[in-house]
Hints:
Helix 1 packs parallel to helix 6 and helix 2 packs across helix 9 (about 335-350). An eight-stranded mixed sheet has the order 5-6-4-14-15-16-13-17, sandwiched between helices. It has three domains: about 5-50 and about 145-215 and about 310-365, 3-Layer(bba) Sandwich (FAD/NAD(P)-binding domain); about 85-140, no CATH class; about 215-235 and about 245-305, D-Amino Acid Oxidase, Chain A, domain 2, CATH 3.30.9.10. Helix content is about 25%, strand content about 25%. Strand 15 (about 245-250) and strand 16 form a beta hairpin. The two termini are about 40 Å apart. The chain is of the alpha/beta class.
Amino acid sequence: MAECVVIGGGVIGVSCAFRLAEAGVDVLLLERGGLGGGSTAKAAGGIRSSFTTRVNVELGLRGLAAYSAFSRDFGVEIDFRRDGYLYVLTDPADVPAIGHCAELQREYGVRSHLLDPGEAQALLPLIGRDGIVAALWSPDDAKATPDAVVQGYARAARACGATLRTGVEVTGIERDGDTLTGVVTTAGYVRTGAVVCAAGAWSGRIGELAGLDLPVRPYRRQVVFTGPVPGLPEAVPLTIELPSAFYFHREGPGLAMSFSEDDGFSGFDTGYEPGEWLPRLAELAGRRIPAVLDAGVRTAWAGLYEMTPDRNQILGQSVLLSRFFYATGFSGHGFQMAPAAGELIRDLYLGREPAVDITELDVRRFDSADTAPVEHHIV
């Protein structure tokens, strides 16, 4: 028996488990693999407030604040670095919209501002200037190590009394009408009156077990890690070229690089398939950072994004099944929003007013045309 069962042991799940246990809730977290072994294991570790919607800016700011103090608060080194985010624009049509985003971010105290091509290259001489029409620089954005964060939250959750079980898969959710009664697992039955779905790309399946529609689907993303790059500066912003969505950041003496493909639902396969993808990546990388072409590919892997139709997270509680909470569908920005997700799920569970208005992130937005504004900065 448990007062609340958290399904999923990635960074969202352990954040929720910690905040609930800290508040005195009897928590059981169930993870079918190992802690942080799913999408979190493949996360780039970016942390930003440079988003295009108000709610995402607010959630991102809470993440930055939490991670900047994480090592002090949790006693775990997470390699937090404020190297910033740099958005390189190659289409003049994008400049007004990005300028508007910068204005929105500054309303919340974010130090985002537009750069001209010369200023962008002066900031990061590594990038070629050809084709750049402007850039958006957000110096306070950061990077950290996701696995270290997972371990920090997990240790703190256990210290507060939570039970975290790995290698246990949820195979059923039992209900009596609109009331939760229990969870069926590969290790037996757990009687509970509350569930938090933090199952990432697998959340749609968890929703089905509960008789609910959680429109979260897996999209495969591949990343290449290069060998040493000549002249690589110590501080490299996480740099995103728009509209190609090619991005890179420093990883040791080389770079981690990828680009987003609008290839839709991809299933749960995480096997790396270079195919036509790698030549396209080489084309984008060679144009923007010519020095990388001599670095070679050191390794590569694929992971899963948990995507929703409007590329915004689903955060709230069901009105169809009492005490069923969800924190999922973060569409590529789950790591940076994990601290806020844990706090908000705790507040909803305890019946408190959430610190951030997350009304537009309710799953019911997909029942009509009144969805949240699409989040465009997904890489």
